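hey so i finaly got around to running the thing on Integral membrane protein from Streptomyces kunmingensis. pasting the sequence first so u can double check i didnt mess up the copy paste, my clipboard has been acting weird all day
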Amino acid sequence: MIGYVLRLYPRTYRDDFGAELRDAYDEATAGASPAARVREAADIAAHALRTRLRLTSSDPAGRIAPAAALLSLAAAAAVCGLHLSRVYVGWASSPGHVPMAVDTWTAMALCALLVCGGAAVALARWWRWGSRLAAVGLLGYAGAAYASGPAFADPVVTPAACALTAIAVLACPPDLPPSATLMPAAGGVAAAIWLPLTAVYAGAVPVSTDYGYWPLCVLLAAGLCKTLRTPSPGLCKTLRTPSPGLASAMAALPSCPLLIAHGYTMGGQVTTPLLACCAVLLTLTAAPTVLRRGRRAVAKR
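ok and heres what it spat out for the 3d tokens, dont ask me to read them lol
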């Protein structure tokens, strides 16, 4: 079995390290159970895919993956939390008892709950297990939304966005987890998206809907705060660019599909949320340069 797994590596990598990997696998699984052998092979396969896709901790994309995974997880927790809020408000406003049926709607609610639980575990600094739980929940949510078909009114955009977000969360290299100092900020981003819109769903504020724009506004505000207050030279060096705005935009990009899907679900069209997302990314890219030029213009006066 290990021979087929090693074929996932690029040819040059396999020629250089294939024998060493095979010996390490044989040593690690000597006398082990079949489940342990499968788990070890799965870890090697994951590393092979990261190597082929250039997402290891030594690659530029791999070094930016932790920040992207953290923002993607925050977006997933917020969107799934909003789904649970809509479900609860619907149940609470129902005049009769709402039974829990075995159907795709219940599956979506349970998967959304799993995503939120996984995000809480990951942001509590158990990143490995929490991110995996969240990814499983996202894939389950995607499958349930697709199976719902026209009843969910979005059997394409939301499942695709959930799958992309799960990939972004899992793409974080195991030896380079997100910074623990940024995890509270990611939780704050998720809460800033979820809490106001939950108040809207509950009728606690005089606004009827946000048409899906509020999460993008929060993403923009978070990106600007991070870029303008604490620009990251590490990300700039990773992307070989002097612009901290471009680095922040690249880190925010993987979190956009799920926010676009939320806008599509709320507003009924995908073009406007997509254009709004592009505007957010362009603003993040240009903001540091505009601010720097403005400061220079003021200093010359």
